[in-house]
Design goal:
Elements: H1 2-32, H2 39-49
């Protein structure tokens, strides 16, 4: 039972880390390479992810 709890905790931390990393990379990419982002799709993505 304890193993399942630990595995779930690790998975939650891992998922949160991936989400935070993706968000940070997306923000940096948007500011550094704005030309690679299409305005409508990136705006919709920002609204959908929040």
């Amino acid at each position: 039972m304890k193993k399942i709890h630990v595995a779930f905790l690790l998975f939650a931390v891992f998922a949160a880390g991936i989400g935070a990393t993706a968000l940070i990379v997306d923000q940096i990419g948007f500011h550094v390479y704005p030309a690679t982002y299409e305005a409508p799709s990136s705006a919709e993505g920002a609204v959908a992810s929040r």
